[in-house]
Amino acid sequence: MAKLLDQKTFEKDVLVWDTKTWSKALVYWGKIARQQGFDKNQKKGLELGANYGGMSLFFSHRFQSSMVCSDLQNPAPKAEPIHLKYAVSSNIRYEAINACTIPYPDSHFDFVVFRSLLGVIGANGHVSDIQLAFSEIQRVLKPGGLLFYAENMKASQLHQFARRRFVAWGRKWHYLSSQELNVYLSAFKIHEMQRVGFLTAFFSKSTFMQRIAVHIDNLCFFVPDSWKYVAFGYAQK
User: Fold this and answer.
1) Contact 136, 101 (CB under 8 A)
2) Going from the N-terminus, what domains does the chain have, and what CATH number goes with each?
3) Model confidence over 102-137: pLDDT tens digits?
4) Rounded distance between C-alpha atoms, residue 45 and residue 25, angstroms
5) Model's pTM, two decimal places?
6) Nearest Cα residue to 230 out of 139, 115, 67, 124
């Protein structure tokens, strides 16, 4: 049986960084998953760009989903110890998978999930590879299957300047706009997107300041969505 240490530790193990902002995606995905009957029937899912396997942990723990946890290099050395801690590793298989060439047949998975993946796929000018990844995701999803996504976005001019100046990979990463992401999602029958996070991005080094920034972000309804640095949602094939 899956174990839960406590909610704060669980979110940290799922998300690793900037948990207060990105945890909004987990709440949203959980709502959609329940609406789609994930809590009634075991679903077969694929996590792309897993790193520490947080999305596999979330869906295997919350919904007992059967997961393929994948990254360009097999993520087992990083991810499996965390999954063992929550007693969900029996539901998870670890594989090395390139999101642009997924080695599974058509209509194989009930859902695909990723977090902060598209920017690295499109890095260093390889923007056309993002369309390849979306085509592969659509191909391996069953009819009516779901894509759950959460992604770093272009956000405001201030975010773009700070990344170029202070983030090691900021000049290489491809940060998408809402318009660009909507183009990729338009091939799905249904898709929804929400945007969150503005100030929090600038306080990743300080837990105390990050908590304050999250509260301010939650109150700043006047901040345009195009200035927010996280997008999450779902799409249905």
Assistant:
1) yes
2) 7-236 (3.40.50.150)
3) 999 999 999 999 999 999 999 988 999 999 999 999
4) 17
5) 0.91
6) 115
